[in-house]
């Protein structure tokens, strides 16, 4: 019985994220490509400094924080659950072919 309750609330949470939170986050960014998915409980702050390419997927509970730097993520990038990326100044670009390397200027 508890498992069914859990499944119900989990489905509601994921639906709320997909219907309400993801579209709002995407509109607040510099730009957001096609087929981009943002997981539940992600913290992308501030949205006005983040740009996502096409086919980018950010797993649940990922943290992308910046102050004045712009975070630019290229095409076909996958960030796993719980990824943490923090920048303070400059301009950071994720190299599209390799998700584990970043070029920060």
Summarize the structure in short.
With about 100 residues, this protein is an alpha/beta fold. It has 1 helix and 11 strands; from the N terminus they run H-E-E-E-E-E-E-E-E-E-E-E. Strands 1-4-7-10-11 form a 5-stranded mixed β-sheet, with helices on one face.
Written as H for each helix and E for each strand, in order along the chain, the element string is HEEEEEEEEEEE
Q: Please report the distance between the alpha carbons of the first and last residues.
A: 54 Å
Calculate the mean pLDDT score and round it.
80
The global form is elongated
Major beta sheet summary: 5 strands, mixed
Computed CA radius of gyration, to the nearest angstrom: 15 Å
Fraction of residues in helix: 25-40%
Query: How are strands sequenced across the largest beta sheet?
Result: 1-4-7-10-11
Briefly note the structural class of the backbone: alpha/beta
The count of helical stretches stands at 1
Please tally the β strands and state the result.
11
Beta-strand percentage?
Answer: 25-35%
Poorly predicted runs of 5 or more residues: 95-105
Could you explain how this protein is built, in words?
- With 105 residues, the chain is α/β, with parallel strands linked by helices.
- Helix content is 26%, strand content 31%.
- It has one helix and eleven strands; from the N terminus they run H-E-E-E-E-E-E-E-E-E-E-E.
- The strands form three sheets. It has a five-stranded mixed sheet, covered by helices on one side. A three-stranded parallel sheet has the order 2-5-8, with no helix packed on it.
- The longest helix is centred in the first third of the chain and has 27 residues, at 2-28.
């Amino acid at each position: 019985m508890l498992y069914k309750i859990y499944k119900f609330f989990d489905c509601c949470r994921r639906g709320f994220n997909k219907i309400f939170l993801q579209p709002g986050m995407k509109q607040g960014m510099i730009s957001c490509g096609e087929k981009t998915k943002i997981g539940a409980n992600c913290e992308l702050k501030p949205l006005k400094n983040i740009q996502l390419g096409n086919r980018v997927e950010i797993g649940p509970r990922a943290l992308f924080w910046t102050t004045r730097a712009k975070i630019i993520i290229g095409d076909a990038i996958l960030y796993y659950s719980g990824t943490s990326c923090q920048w303070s100044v400059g301009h950071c670009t994720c190299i599209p072919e390799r998700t584990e390397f970043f070029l920060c200027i």
